[in-house]
Amino acid sequence: METIRISPDRMKIILNEEDCRRFAVTDEAFEGDVRGLLGRILADTEEAALLNVAAGRLHLQVYEAVDGGCEIFLTCLAEERQEAAEPSPRYLALWDTDSLFMLCRRLKSSGCGGRLLRMGARWYLDFQGGKIPLAALDFGETAEGETAAYISEYATCLAEDVIAALG
């Protein structure tokens, strides 16, 4: 048996013919207690602790292998009732204009894009990818919640791709 972790919620399980006999893997087994079957198969693997097959919905794809075994692709689907994750802040309030120039030089090679906004006496970078790069936090502070909503509504856009222009 071999397990390959594809992503945090996806796994590929490769069973040879002997493994299929040992775990009683048949067409009928996938119509009954699938969670029990997967629990028996994954019981001795380290990946079992990382993949929560007990909660949520499961999506299985089973393919017969030429050696008499099978390949199982397992995806754990999130509960539909879970709340959406908080969006990452995308606005950075810069300390001053020197910070703007230094930040643009630092981020130019990263391929990151951002619009330059001005509202009142403050300069803001709007990271259109939605997430502020970690390196940018040395040059300002994030604007979140109501402040971010206010910026998106009332700030004036001065340049569309300021990082490429000033970097």
Quick synopsis:
This protein is an alpha+beta fold and 167 residues long. It contains six helices and nine strands.
Describe what you observe in this structure.
With 167 residues, the chain is α+β, with helices and mostly antiparallel strands. It contains six helices and nine strands, in the order E-E-H-H-H-E-E-E-H-E-E-E-H-E-H. The protein has helices at 17-22, 34-42, 47-50, 97-107, 145-154, 162-166, and strands at 2-7, 10-15, 57-64, 70-77, 91-94, 114-119, 122-127, 140-143, 156-159. The strands form two sheets. The chain has a five-stranded antiparallel beta sheet. It is elongated and about 70 Å long. The mean pLDDT is 78.
Sheet-strand content, in percent, reads: 25-35%
Strand order of the largest sheet: 8-5-7-6-9
Distance between the first and last residues' Cα: 52 Å
Largest pleated sheet: 5 strands, antiparallel
Shape: elongated
Class inferred from helices and paired strands: alpha+beta
Total number of strands:
9
Helix content: 25-40%
Q: Helix count, per DSSP?
A: 6
Enumerate the spans where pLDDT stays under 50 for 5 or more consecutive residues: none
Order of helices and strands: EEHHHEEEHEEEHEH
The chain-level mean pLDDT equals: 78
Radius of gyration: 25 Å
